[in-house]
Design goal:
With 115 residues, the chain is an alpha+beta fold. The protein has three helices and three strands, in the order H-E-E-H-E-H.
Length: 115
Amino acid sequence: MILHEGEPIDLLDRWEGAGEVIVVDAVSSGAPPGTIHRLDPLAEPIQTALSQGSTHALGLAEAIELARALGRLPHRLTVYGIEGERFTAGDELSAPVRAAVAELAGELAGQLGRP
């Protein structure tokens, strides 16, 4: 397992040769805070409503579409977006978001066969 924090464009190099990739990111679509969105960007592009307001030069949705255009998508790609509540630098996670993170972490740990 490889963890990555930083610019989404860097993911293209990280995905090289990967059989399966799972991405977890914060989203702001107007859904209630803590909502977990499960997306299959190999089946359809990520809705722009889920990738608004990125602090990155190139957002995750754009990086995925660039990878698609370049033929550099992994064989399996799942994106989980956790609906945020506050996006101000230095803010801590709200209770609903913290609960969603714990829930998703447990689910993914089970899928990956880790305690």
